[in-house]
Amino acid sequence: MIEENVKLHDKFSVELKLGFIARKKALKNNFTLNTWIFFPESLDINRFTYSKESFYNDLKSNIRLITPIFLLRDIAERKCPVFENLELSFQQLASQPTRTNKADYEYQIKMFLSILKSSLREEINHISNVKDEDIDYLLLHHLEYLHSIMIQYRALYFIINVPTVSNELVEYFNYGDEFMSNLVEYNSFLLLRKFKQRKTTNFEEQRSQLNLFIENELHYKKSKNYLTVERDNKKGNTEIVLKLGVLKKYMESHLFLNTDRQKDGILVEQLLFSLAAGISMVFATFIAFSVQRKFGNFTMPLFVALVVSYMLKDRIKEFTRYYLANKMSTRFFDHKIRISVHEKEVGWAKESMDFIHYKKLPEEVKECRQKFSILQNISRRNSEKAILFRTQMFIDRQALDNSSKYFISGINSIIRLNFTSFLKNMDNPDFPLYYPDAEKDFIIVKGLKLYYINLILQMKSEDQNELVKYRLAINRKGIHSMEKII
After folding, report:
1. pLDDT at residue 281 above 80?
2. Cα angle for residues 136, 118, 193 (degrees, 5° grid)
3. 228: left (phi over 0), alpha (psi -120 to 50) or beta
4. Could you give the residue ranges of the DSSP H alpha helices within 199-264?
5. CA 208, CA 187: separation in Å to the nearest integer?
6. What is the DSSP string of 203-220?
7. Less Cβ crowding at N or C end of the chain, within 10 Å?
8. CA 183 centroid distance within chain
9. b/e per residue, 231-250, with b = 16+ CB within 10 A?
């Protein structure tokens, strides 16, 4: 199945996080995702003003493995293989620092921290949404589990504190320790903020527990000379932002998959172009032979016929190529992406973008577009345009299982779509409105001019056929809001 999570990434971009979950027992898993983008015709976005190249320039996509999920409690109590795999890699490195063991040591540190990050996210979301009377118990154990996990990770240092392990390899451990410390600190502040927003019953006690935990971790960070936030140190805090970004990219780099992007249908395209050349050559040769047979060799009619036939030959060739290319675009995708882990292919993805006429929209998409619409009774055939971004994904379950010691449920495709190109023809965001006034007859107040862009995701797999709809409110200043309609 396909799981979707759509959110605003920044003022001008939307992020679509799509999880392609491969079934355990299905060796071959196929998925189809159609993303329909509906926007006002007044924006003047069409196939002549907004090419495929422009669309892909506005699109940034990454493909990565879905992080294995374990309970924070199970990690702390060693009821899952996280610490077992981590400790084994440390011991093997200390005993035999081979290239393979070095790579596995680095990989297990990254995987441990990725799993911890996902587990923390799930734990924070759970604690933030339970009943007030359950929070105290859950918070107490949450902090105990975190404390236990940090102690166990930091104790692994003594395994690699041996002559066979270089300082460079020890630094990988320190990077992991600093990333873990930042992760724990951030999530503790996040939990504190959620409690404050909820105005929980025992907020003062909960704040005291979290502040004490944060203070202890900050004290540890300072003892290790890790960067810490300072209230009035803009330069230092800028360095922290840079360091956080570098550590995040490094610790998550093992999840991002190797991709080889190529044009789809290259062989078929070349065969069709050869066919076009052949058709034009048949025409030119037929004209030449016919005139030669009737008027003979070295005659003026033959000369004229040869010139005309070769002139038409090139036009026929180009017309046939154009016709076949258009026909091919409906059957093939723009790109094919081969997806591999450790140089072993685990699947592929295909992408394609096209403008779609209203008449060619599937009925279920039309119905979804009309639901909960602001102006339900106004026809959109002439007031709206639509872009279809098609994605097909194939995952080889067996190859995916062989790629890691952990069970990987599937692949995440993270897409960021930037709408800056849609802003250039928008009106002034401040719209003047008149309001009656007893003294001045009227006063002018400002209304906000917004344009609405609708995203419809059509997700298909063996056991799924689902439509979801999001609506963006946007103007020249950027995205104003986004809401899920269906």
Report:
1. no
2. 45
3. beta
4. 203-223, 234-252
5. 16
6. HHHHHHHHHHHHHHHHHH
7. C
8. 22
9. eeeeeeeeebeeebeebeeb
